[in-house]
Design goal:
The protein has 19 helices and 32 strands. Residues 249, 294-296, 371-375, 393-398, 421, 486, 488, 500, 503, 509, 514 line the site of adenosine-5'-monophosphate-propyl ester.
Length: 639
């Protein structure tokens, strides 16, 4: 490993400046944090903006860096700690054991016909086999595409069609709050709905729900694991720019985008973030409460901590079950040094007895990182005072793979400010731009948070299978400038701290889960009684935001009595549950005679949202039928 310039001698501002002014020198140094099978010839190829290719010609492998690499020094140290408060299981895999399981899984995947570059869709609960599957794909150069276990058949079908996986790996069921959540039925329905069919399905049977096998297509993991128990599968060395995974995320359209990531750039970015931002050391334990179905789970449950030689906790369960001390009990038991969660989890804990925060010894914790949604000041203060450990907000996206804004205590002990995720991280040439003129804004001026390309290593390479969509979606919204839009509003204070002020598009954030309102609208509109609908995100004290649906029925008589309206509301929610998953279910479905629209027919979602939140909806001169807005006020009780 080569020396990496950091810490003591440098301030964050210097470190950041160098990362932009001497991009190649900076990232060449960071690249020394990982193992390369073949050194790269060129740090950056930016000959086709905005496409950036990092570490050209270099050969490496994510699984090697996460697992094999630690065998010589840490073989018998913990690597993966599985804790399920749902099934009362707790199991630790050392690096040597994790290696064996990943190799077995790799052999199984290969035996089912998967070769380098093939897609493997992973639809799994938080069980060790999910981690084995991701790492096994990385090992053999197969491209994994993890679909969050809370998503249902239509969400699955659209992802299956986009990724056309050769293999799907799944399990009989997940469990949430003590209730079994069967997966197989949804999976079979998703496959039936999709036009692209996987050749094989590999099922892990946890014995939680009945498993009906489709002969010739479905395979049993336990049986194949026995068959490949002693298998050897060497690492496949991949060129840095080959694809490691795709992960679907929501945007303005109903069709999710496959965020595509490389191998070398991602490994370097994660290794650098583990050192400079998360400050995790080999032999320590990292605990991230996210799910492998989200980007936080990819980067900071699986790859980041393991690349850093840390043990990582894979937790299946809620933060308040069996009691509100469970997270801290795990911190104490496994001497967790770095923890990562979401503001919603903290707000859930905040409703419980605060003494849970001090019943366990959490002094091992260097910091608790929170991300995924705005961290409101009361929540930040509560957890910071209650826990007595540094709370570090960090802002980023599925697209970037690692933090854009935070503080980097591995570089400098920059103080934090309530309400601000911090400052631009090294590698990101961050600007606040005027949404209409593209002009760069100064301190205390609200603008779109944008990144001047090239995007740093670890960020998305493109949209899977659609370079045009990548450019059109992300690089074409700010006039006169080639700049990546985060689609977030932001403001910077005079000292350089940024504040995130909400999305510029129709994406909503429910309990840290990013959802597209358009997808929910499409699902609701598929109900035979529905003529039209609009879904908006409304502020919620617990979940940050919740979805509210306003629906126009084909026959308004169907919801004329409170009983029929309630039954229909339940019916529509059940459609969303079945198609997208309970995670996307609106908190309420209201029935109205018409949606507030402009004269040209554009639904005024922001106006509806303002009314729902009791805010002034602003200029209403463009509204076609003011009585429609009055009705929104009426049904939501905001009159
Ligand atoms: O709107 C921002 C919000 O979540 C979006 C990205 O969500 P996702 O792709 O799921 O990635 C989450 C990775 C942590 C952002 O565009 N967001 C994320 N973190 C924060 C945030 N908003 C405010 N503060 C944050 N710390």
């Amino acid at each position: 490993m080569t020396a990496v310039a950091n810490s003591s001698s440098s301030t964050l501002a210097d470190f950041h400046r160098r990362s932009i002014e001497d991009r190649e020198g900076f990232w060449r140094e960071q690249a020394g944090l990982i193992d390369w099978h073949r050194p790269f010839d060129q740090v950056l190829d930016y000959s086709k903006p905005p496409f950036a290719r990092w570490f050209l010609g270099g050969e490496t492998n994510l699984c090697h860096n996460a697992v094999d690499r630690h065998l010589s020094t840490q073989a018998n140290q913990p690597a993966l700690i599985f804790v399920s408060t749902e099934t009362d299981q707790e199991r630790t895999y050392t690096f040597a054991q994790l290696h064996r399981e990943v190799v077995r899984m790799a052999a199984i995947i290969q035996s089912l016909g998967v070769v380098r570059g093939d897609r493997v869709l992973i639809y799994m609960p938080m069980i060790p086999e999910a981690a084995f599957a991701m790492l096994a794909c990385a090992r053999i150069g197969a491209i994994h595409s993890v679909v969050f276990g809370g998503f249902a058949s239509h969400s699955l079908a659209s992802r299956i069609d986009d990724a056309s996986p050769k293999l799907i790996i799944s399990a009989d069921a997940g469990s949430r709050g003590g209730k079994v959540v069967p997966y197989k039925g949804l999976l079979d329905e998703g496959i039936a709905l999709a036009s692209s069919k996987p050749a094989a399905v590999l099922m892990v049977n946890r014995g939680l729900a009945p498993l009906e096998r489709v002969p010739g297509r479905d395979h049993d993991y336990a049986a194949l694991r026995e068959r490949f128990f002693e298998a050897e599968v060497p690492v496949t060395w991949l060129e840095s720019n080959e694809v490691s995974y795709t992960l679907y995320t929501s945007g303005t359209t109903g069709r999710p985008k496959g965020v595509q990531r490389d191998v070398g750039g991602y490994a370097v970015a994660l290794a650098a973030s583990m050192r400079h931002i998360f400050c995790g050391n080999p032999g320590e334990t990292y605990f991230c409460t996210s799910d492998i179905g989200w980007v936080v789970g990819h980067s900071y449950i699986i790859y980041g901590p393991l690349i850093a030689g840390m043990a990582t906790i894979l937790y299946e369960g809620l933060p308040i079950r069996p009691d509100a001390g469970i997270l801290w009990r795990l911190v104490e038991k496994y001497r967790v040094t770095v923890m990562f969660s979401a503001p919603t989890a903290v707000r859930v804990l905040k409703k419980q007895d605060p003494s849970w925060l001090t019943r366990y010894d959490t002094r091992s914790l260097r910091a608790l990182f929170l991300a995924g949604e705005p961290l409101d000041e009361p929540t930040a203060r509560w957890i910071s005072e209650g826990l007595g450990r540094p709370i570090l907000d960090n802002y980023w996206q599925t697209e970037t793979g690692w933090p854009i804004l935070t503080v980097a205590h591995g570089i400098e002990k920059t103080p934090t400010r309530f309400g601000s995720p911090g400052m631009p991280m090294y590698g990101y040439d961050l600007k606040l731009l005027h949404e209409q003129t593209g002009e760069e804004l100064g301190a205390n001026e609200k603008g779109v948070v944008a990144i001047v390309p090239p995007l740093p290593p670890g960020c998305m390479q493109t949209v899977w299978g659609d370079d045009v969509r990548f450019v059109n979606t992300y690089f074409s919204s700010i006039p006169g400038k080639l700049a990546y839009s985060t689609f977030d509003w932001g403001i910077r204070d005079a000292d350089g701290y940024y504040f995130i002020l909400g999305r510029t598009d129709d994406v909503i954030n429910v309990a840290g889960h990013r959802l597209g309102t358009r997808e929910i609208e499409e699902s609701i509109s598929s109900h035979p009684a529905v003529a039209e609908c609009a879904v908006v995100g409304v502020a919620d004290t617990l979940k940050g935001q919740v979805a509210m649906a306003f629906t126009v029925l084909k026959d308004s008589g169907m919801a004329s009595s409170p009983e029929s309206a309630m039954a229909l509301e339940g019916d529509i929610m059940a459609v969303v549950d079945r198609q997208l998953g309970a995670v996307a279910r609106p908190a309420r479905v209201f029935f109205v005679n018409g949606l507030p629209k402009t004269r040209s027919g554009k639904v005024l979602r922001r106006t509806i949202q303002a009314v729902c939140e009791g805010r002034d909806p602003g200029d209403l001169t463009t509204i076609d039928d003011p009585s429609a807005l009055e009705q929104v006020r009426g049904v939501t009780g905001k009159r």
